[in-house]
Amino acid sequence: MLQKVLIANRGEIAVRVIRTCRELGIATVAVYSELDREALHVRLADEAFALGGQTAAESYLNTQAILDAIAKSGADAVHPGYGFFSENADFARAITGEGITFVGPPPEAMEVMGDKISSRHAAERAGVSGVPGRSDPLQDASEVVAFGEEHGWPVAIKAAFGGGGRGMKVVNAAADAPAALESAQREAQAYFGRPEVYLERYLSWPRHIEMQVFADTQGNTVWLGERDCSAQRRHQKLVEESPAPNFPDDIRRAMGEAAVKVAKACGYVNAGTVEFLYQDGDFYFLEMNTRLQVEHPVTEMVVGMDLVELQLRIAAGEPLGFNQEDIERRGHAIECRINAENPAKGRFLPAPGTITRFRRPDGFGVRTDAGYDDGDTVSQYYDNLIAKLVVWGSDREHARRRMLRALAEMEVEGVATTIPAHQAILSHPDFVSGEHSTRWVEERLDLSQVESKAKATEGAPEPPEGENRVLREVDAEVDGRRYKVKLWVPDLGPVVAAAPGAGRQATAPRRPRGGAGGHGGGAGSGQVTVPMQGTIVKVLVAEGESVEIGQAVCVLEAMKMENNINAEAAGTVKEIRVKPGDTVGAGDVVAMIE
Ligand code: MV4
Which of 286, 289, 440, 444 should be mutated for ligand 1, with most atoms under 8 A from CB? Predict the structure, then answer.
């Protein structure tokens, strides 16, 4: 077995891997950026090594710094988690070249699957079809037109080296083909450094269903079951579940067998996920993710296996130790991704900051995989996933109700979270009946009433202006019945954290000026302000142009996500104060409208 594993990652997945290593008696090595010096994964590991740097590129993506940490620690294996180096064949080769075990697939399999055209070919060789389309790079818009005229519109143009949904263009008619092709190629070059694109028929209401596979080095490959990840927005998953609702057993088996064939076709070893689109009873190969996925716990809950343990055993050369027929799936599991994001009005604005209070839900069938605890800071430089809340229930409805109970029990203060969006999703009749698709959150779910309660406790009264006041929650009895009462009281000095057992003495941080979630220039103002720090990637209007209320003025990238910055008033653009590439801070004015 492996002796010492270095986890080349951070946050909840680093914590997840450390836990299993500890159970198996494997020593753990954490690595950390300057911002993560006191992060949870560092606190939990046996040893930790500094990588230096703040951004991911300076730290968790710094190959040399990680190779140095491996050498200094004497680790005999590296677990890459997800993201960062997890699907990087060059990194896997670099470490295996030093005699270190990479806990993941062979680099050749990563390469075949990293390119969506070659992965489509691999699936075809295995007899598994993708969405009807063309498995070679597009040269000319006339090919798009020819395909659309023959198979019908719309047609999807996709980046060959893409992934995660960026760079897909939907073409509704022949006239739109040249512009769509050009913009798809330009985006593919900008996002992925390669301009190649290909085409497929566009499915209008598909579900995203993916199949977990595992292969050992002895040639045994099994499928463990599917996950439905259709509840997502902007290609960021929000809720995942297993089994997929309204998904017949014979299709599950066919999809499982197809996934195993795809894995075998590329010489796959270790944990992998084969993604499919599912519509009208048919499934189509989409891509294969050659890593452990964020949502792997829903599979763990249903099959009763620790997938990280399986990964480590396979990496050490052990056989799987069970056959396809030995795998039993019981009950239903759901995962909600708790992100530091404000879902208000469906905008899901990144909300980095310090978590002033973090209370995990508990009870039968509830699991919280968190990367943060009280007092930890979610940095704008990394992924904003705070925790994954996972529940198991005897059936889907049981799991759904348990998740709603757990979400209500969870308390996160100091940063806005996606919890209110999860509550809206899980309570919606379309989700209850399993009729949601990949477009449902963005097109059907009404999040206009959703409020995030980052700043203070829910329903807190506004503090009087001009005075320093802090929120206190006190217990009161009226006629012998207990009530919680919220009061804004004068701030009598530094806020002291309530000692354990001192009762619920909620303290609210002082209101930030124009911080994330602030109101900027105020509703209806002619000033267009950004709600958070980030980089302007695009300016969408010109001076002198007239804009409507809600029209996007520019695109701000923050925490790896693009956000439209919209006009709060209609009028004429008098002044634009930014250009692409500019860094802006929370509350900065980017444009003036008259
Ligand atoms: C599609 C599609 C419809 N038709 N392909 C987006 C991510 C990328 N990996 C594949 N994606 C899609 N491909 C055809 N031919 C719809 C999507 C899609 C999607 C897929 C999975 C999960 C979420 C999605 C959200 C929007 C669109």
Answer: 286
Query: Which pTM value belongs to this model?
Result: 0.80
Residue 171: CB within 6 Å of ligand 1? no
User: Which residues, at least 6 apart from 137, have a Cβ–Cβ distance to it below 8 Å?
Assistant: 117, 160, 196, 197, 198
238 Cβ below 6 A of ligand 1? no
Answer whether 228 contacts ligand 1 (Cβ < 6 A). no
Note whether 406 and 532 are same-domain residues.
no
CATH code, domain carrying 245: 3.30.470.20
* Other CB atoms within 10 Å distance of the CB of residue 70: 23
- Number of domains within the chain: 4
pLDDT digits (tens, 9 = 90+) for 497-532: 334 443 333 333 333 333 333 333 344 678 898 888
In a domain, 143, yes or no: yes
How does pLDDT run across 87-144, given as a tens digit for each residue? 999 999 999 999 999 999 999 999 999 888 899 999 999 999 999 999 889 999 999 9
Q: How far is the CA of 288 from the centre of ligand 1 (A)?
A: 13
What span, in angstroms and rounded, lies between the C-alpha atoms of 553 and 567?
A: 6
Give the span between the Cα atoms of 143 and 91, in whole angstroms: 37
Is residue 145 domain-shared with residue 69, that is, in the same domain?
Answer: no
Ligand 1: distance of its center to the CA of 165 in Å?
6
- Of all protein residues, whose CA lies closest to atom 18 belonging to ligand 1? 438
Q: Is residue 476 part of a domain?
A: no
